[in-house]
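Q: what sequence does this backbone want?
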């Protein structure tokens, strides 16, 4: 072999190695780091294109527990039974992903979620049974009586389609019925590609929906001692701790998830945030839930991980007094409005008279807020966003009712002549 041919062979070999190195370096981590051929095919190919198109998607996936455990793009994106599919650059992918794309690997969690008010009752709150199968309604009613077997909300008609689609539905679609027969979405709390437990434990995640005057949970939390401590000590908390081994060493300050979902110090984790609630606080007049004793014991057991029994019982005793007080104010206001209807002073469908709104705001904003504030440490919400506006609206209601009765009497008098 001549020197020339050896030189060429060496040069070509070197060029090939360098080329391979450069090509490899340009490829996404997920392709080069992953061991199996299937994985390289399913995630590498997807990532190769999508890292150029939507870098954030691939990057977030790469940081997720899924990437570390070898769950690939196609594991989630392949169509499951009942889903529409389409050809996509040599793969078949689903056109719309749902909880059905997660349940294959997380069935028990899906079942817990399904029993909660985050599932069918969230949808039922707007549309009643519409869109749900009789089986779905029957299933949910076993766990959340009255949650789905009810008429659509009056605002569906009063406000109309686009207000529903871009308003109510954005929050309540956490329990939307999907075309594949499943209910809801898991990504409201975990996001699509981070699949993160840390994200789900942050108060701001729940606050996407749990905010505003009718359910001021984040505002209450932020001003509570818990919220203040969370803001101050967040960097010392281990928000990413494994749920099955979560202790008060990881989370010594509670977030929404700690009280409503986590299994701290060996307690049971749940995807049913209704599980530890003893009252129907969102209702105009609050009643105890069917399982109230068990549920309250479960919540108090969470508090006990950080507090003494006397402190906890004190909170519940005072809060239950606020519930009783609020119920009495709402019932008194309701009696005024019901009286007007009974005597024919008020007529027409719901929400067609200004006084309907006065009464609605009284229980829906102020009443609810006072009850939520009392249980979750928001004194300002019990008083200035709760009892004070209830008092103010009660006075206004009486005033309006008297004026309406007077006007009615005058017109009745005129009609009789
Ligand atoms: C050859 C490049 C390429 C490959 C390989 C590829 N995609 Fe895409 N993908 C695209 C382009 C380009 C778009 C945008 C096309 C469009 O808007 O119609 C897209 C759009 C999408 C969308 C948006 C949904 C939609 O219908 O608009 C999803 C989801 C998706 N890809 C997932 C995947 C997954 C999962 C894989 C691997 C199984 C994959 N892609 C492989 C190029 C690719
Ligand atoms: C844990 C499951 C899961 C994995 C793993 C996953 N995805 Fe997704 N992806 C989703 C979900 C859920 C959506 C939302 C789809 C929908 O709304 O129908 C989505 C949406 C997308 C979109 C559309 C994004 C947008 O905002 O328009 C693209 C593109 C995409 N995925 C690509 C990928 C690629 C590439 C990979 C792998 C690197 C991947 N996905 C891995 C669950 C996943
Ligand atoms: C192919 C199976 C598979 C699919 C599909 C899948 N997962 Fe996972 N998921 C896993 C595995 C495996 C783990 C890691 C479990 C472990 O570490 O013990 C995991 C872990 C998780 C975690 C915990 C992450 C952490 O930081 O501990 C979350 C949250 C999660 N998945 C959500 C989802 C969601 C939401 C979907 C649907 C959009 C989904 N998964 C789809 C298999 C899957
Ligand atoms: C910002 C997100 C958001 C929007 C928008 C929203 N809701 Fe809600 N809704 C919630 C949350 C969160 C709760 C839970 C309140 C609680 O339990 O304290 C709730 C509770 C309810 C309830 C009481 C619970 C029940 O099942 O009876 C009804 C009814 C309801 N919403 C109907 C509607 C209607 C109708 C609309 C639109 C006119 C709407 N919501 C808009 C987030 C929202
Ligand atoms: C209301 C918000 C919310 C929704 C919706 C939600 N999750 Fe979670 N999920 C959480 C929280 C919070 C945790 C962490 C609990 C804790 O602190 O230990 C979690 C934990 C997990 C884990 C880790 C569990 C473990 O034991 O390692 C998986 C897996 C998971 N979720 C999957 C799902 C799936 C699948 C769905 C849909 C059926 C879903 N999640 C819907 C909030 C949510
Ligand atoms: C995408 C919107 C959304 C997100 C995100 C969300 N929720 Fe909800 N949540 C709702 C809606 C809507 C309801 C009302 C369900 C109903 O109609 O009763 C609700 C109800 C609840 C209830 C009351 C259940 C009952 O039985 O009355 C609790 C507790 C709750 N959510 C806790 C949480 C926690 C904790 C998180 C965060 C880890 C969270 N939610 C995240 C929309 C959301
Ligand atoms: C320290 C524990 C704790 C924290 C933190 C906490 N909650 Fe609560 N929450 C409670 C208690 C206790 C109740 C009332 C329980 C009952 O009915 O027995 C409650 C009630 C609720 C309700 C009312 C459900 C109904 O009946 O209408 C919702 C919704 C809710 N919490 C959501 C949240 C959200 C969202 C956050 C975070 C922004 C949060 N909670 C933070 C303990 C907590
Ligand atoms: C993970 C630990 C943890 C859990 C669980 C927890 N708390 Fe707390 N709580 C704290 C911390 C930390 C403080 C601030 C203590 C301080 O001032 O030093 C606090 C403060 C309070 C305070 C204010 C005390 C005061 O006088 O300033 C009340 C009331 C309270 N918690 C009630 C509850 C109730 C009720 C529950 C259950 C529904 C609960 N907490 C669950 C950690 C927790």
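A:
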């Amino acid at each position: 072999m001549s020197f020339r041919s050896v030189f060429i062979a060496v040069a070509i070999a070197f060029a090939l190695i360098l080329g391979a190195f450069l090509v490899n370096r340009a490829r996404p981590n997920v392709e080069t780091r992953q061991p199996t051929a299937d994985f390289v095919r399913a995630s590498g190919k997807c990532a190769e294109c999508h890292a150029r198109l939507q870098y954030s998607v691939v990057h977030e996936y790469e940081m997720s527990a899924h990437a570390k455990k070898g769950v690939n793009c196609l594991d989630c994106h392949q169509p499951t039974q009942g889903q529409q599919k389409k050809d996509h650059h040599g793969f078949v992918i689903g056109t719309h992903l749902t909880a059905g794309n997660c349940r294959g690997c997380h069935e028990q969690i899906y079942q817990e979620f399904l029993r909660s008010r985050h599932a069918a009752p969230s949808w039922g709150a707007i549309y009643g049974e519409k869109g749900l199968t009789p089986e779905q309604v029957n299933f949910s009613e076993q766990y959340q009586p009255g949650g789905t077997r009810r008429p659509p909300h009056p605002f569906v008609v009063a406000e109309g389609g686009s207000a529903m689609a871009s308003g109510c539905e954005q929050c309540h679609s956490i329990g939307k019925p999907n075309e594949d027969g499943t209910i809801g979405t898991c990504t409201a709390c975990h996001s699509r590609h981070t699949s993160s437990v840390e994200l789900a434990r942050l108060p701001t995640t729940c606050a996407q929906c749990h905010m505003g005057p009718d359910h001021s949970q984040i505002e209450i939390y932020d001003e509570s001692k818990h919220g203040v401590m969370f803001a101050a000590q967040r960097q010392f908390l281990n928000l990413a701790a494994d749920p099955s081994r979560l202790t008060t060493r990881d989370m010594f300050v509670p977030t929404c998830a700690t009280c409503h979902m986590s299994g701290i110090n060996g307690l049971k984790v749940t995807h049913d945030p209704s599980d530890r609630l003893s009252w129907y606080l969102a209702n105009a007049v609050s009643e105890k839930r069917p399982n109230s004793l068990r549920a309250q014991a479960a919540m108090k057991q969470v508090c006990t991980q950080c507090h003494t029994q006397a402190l906890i019982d004190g909170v519940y005793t005072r809060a239950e007094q606020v519930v009783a007080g609020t119920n009495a104010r709402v019932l008194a206001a309701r009696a005024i409005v019901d009286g007007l209807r009974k005597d024919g002073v008020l007529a027409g469908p719901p929400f067609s008279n200004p006084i309907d709104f006065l009464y609605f705001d009284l229980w829906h904003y102020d009443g609810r807020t006072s009850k939520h504030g009392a249980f979750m440490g928001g004194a300002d919400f019990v008083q200035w966003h709760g009892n004070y506006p209830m008092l103010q609206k009660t006075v206004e209601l009486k005033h309006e009712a008297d004026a309406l009765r007077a006007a009615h009497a005058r017109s009745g008098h005129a009609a009789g002549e």
